[in-house]
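User: My instructor asked us to take a sequence, write out its structure as tokens, and then describe one feature of it. I'm not sure where to start. Here is the sequence I was given:
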Amino acid sequence: MDFPGSRDIENGGVGALHVVGVQAVLTEYLIRYTDIIFSEKMPVFPSPKISE
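Assistant: Let's start with the prediction itself. The structure tokens for your sequence are:
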């Protein structure tokens, strides 16, 4: 099964740079927000009120 851009990754093309960039952003997000993501106590946010 081929994933989108998998040929670019194998060949080292522009798609490979895009994938590396996405992985870097996701990794930074996980590191920055790991305490919230993996917290046993999730913060409670008020539900938005829908006005009719």
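For the description part of your assignment, you could build on this observation: Helices lie at 6-11, 14-32, 34-37. Try explaining in your own words what that tells you about the chain.
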